[in-house]
Amino acid sequence: MNETNFLDHRRKLLERMEEGVAIVTSAPPQTRSNDTEYAYRQNSDFYYLSGFTEDNSVLILIKTSESTKVLLFVEPDNAEHALWNGARLGIEGAKSTFRVDEVYDIAEYSRMIPELLREHIHLYIDLYSDSPHLSEAKRAAHSLHSTRGIKRHIRSIIDITYLIRRLRLIKSDKEIQEITHAITITAEAHHEAMRTCRAGMREFQLQACMSYVFLNNGAVSEAYGAIVAGGNNANTLHYIDNRDELKDGDLVLIDAACEWNLYASDITRTFPINGKFSNAQREVYEKVLNVQLRVIEAIKPGVKRDWLQKYSEELLCDALIDLGILSGERNVLMDAKEHKKYAPHGIGHWMGLDVHDPCPYVDEVGEALAFEAGMVMTIEPGLYFRTDDESVPERYRGIGIRIEDNILVTESGYENLSSMIAKTVEEIEKMCRK
Ligand code: GLY
Ligand code: MN
Ligand code: MN
Known about the structure:
Layout: H1 3-16, E1 20-25, E2 31-33, E3 36-37, H2 44-50, E4 58-63, E5 68-74, H3 79-85, H4 90-97, E6 102-105, H5 109-117, E7 122-125, H6 132-145, E8 156-159, H7 160-169, H8 173-196, H9 203-216, E9 221-222, E10 227-230, E11 251-255, E12 258-260, E13 263-264, E14 268-272, H10 279-297, H11 305-322, H12 330-335, E15 376-379, E16 382-384, E17 400-402, E18 405-410, E19 413-416, H13 425-432
Helix pairs in contact: 1-2, 5-6, 8-9, 10-11
The structure holds glycine (GLY) and manganese (II) ion (2 copies).
């Protein structure tokens, strides 16, 4: 992404705003344990509008009937910070890098905010953020309210995240390129895991081989905590311990992916630890794969996620009947939510700057949004049969399978952005060949 892309995002937001002031703040650094922090990760909304990746910064967009103006407040570079943490871009650096109208020292924010809010009616902020900069803006608005000689006051505070996230829903070509780059590295990491996997290894060793591929390709961050779940561990949906031994004859489910320039990928593959599916594993795998392929094929503009969810549940319910795990009339089983025990999670979610992109699923009046070209969604059906679940035929117990790809909605239908990753039984067994 370059500055023009971020400028374009700001322009679109300004077009959708009423006259007023919008304030978007950077993410706070997060302490991991005493005196040590997690690697800094920018607030996705802030990054979407600014491209700026440093902390303690604030972006302000001002719209009047005559003009628009964008101000960025940043930490100046200083020797102490440079010594411990490296150089900051600083005010001059930010001025020359980012195509905003004005750049100021963040220390000026408190002094300037009352003036910036003066004579405005609408204030756009993240209503649910506890950023001290936003509290300060609200206090400034309050005190302006009781200041004589001011004709117009802030009298509407609007949640800006909805506006930004409506925009984030439709990815530009450049954003698709970032996501595709993340997926390309993730694809290589999944293939490396398939090639490397041996019975007797520990789950974290497979994770390590994927991390190596991520880092070796410059993807310095995972998009989420990796799940490497051998055997029955796959039936714990958010299993992240990744410490157990990988056993001959079991499957391993890997839900792991990297981030590229803050854009996520989100991929799951399930494969046999010894490289060859057993008959029972293959039967379940083919069912999940069939559901995944059919759901993906149904994606096109106009389709709604709610419909896709229902469709996927019908297909999973049919699969459970075919496998002899449920019996009876599909609709009756679905009404009783019998399938949910074995297929408990949703079919997918928006993906972008956040792995679970917080873009809306419904419009302003609560109607489900229809797919449009440029939206990116994961499709990730799964079936999960715990070892201790006596409602399942013994041969299927301990099998947990999820298959997840990242799908772009296009004008004519869809594009599977992760189609290069081995997925059929044959492709996987070939990739796993020892
Ligand atoms: N990796 C998280 C998810 O699949 O939603
Ligand atoms: Mn996902
Ligand atoms: Mn996932």
